[in-house]
Design goal:
By secondary structure, the chain is an alpha+beta fold. The chain has one helix spanning about 45-60, and strands at about 15, 65-70.
Length: about 80
């Protein structure tokens, strides 16, 4: 039996980010070094989440990933 049914369902990945605090690049202008150079957990800037977002888009397809920036919603501001 052949069904004549077409689905319009789509699957996508929802990624969120938060706590960027306005740091665009991972560079400490006082020391001249990246923030994460001595402690990897201190990495800052948009290049860090950008790599993770690119990896997911390559894996799932660029049109299947929705990125939301929720700012500091978790802190109530």
């Amino acid at each position: 039996m052949k069904l004549k049914y077409k689905s319009n369902l789509a699957c996508f990945v929802l990624k969120t980010k938060t706590f960027i605090y306005g740091t665009l690049v991972d560079h400490d202008y006082f020391t001249g070094q990246p923030f994460g150079s001595s402690k990897p957990q201190n990495v800052r800037g948009m290049d860090h989440p950008s790599t993770a977002i690119q990896n997911v888009r390559e894996e799932k397809g660029k049109n299947a990933v929705l990125l939301l920036d929720n700012g500091d919603v978790a802190q109530g501001s």
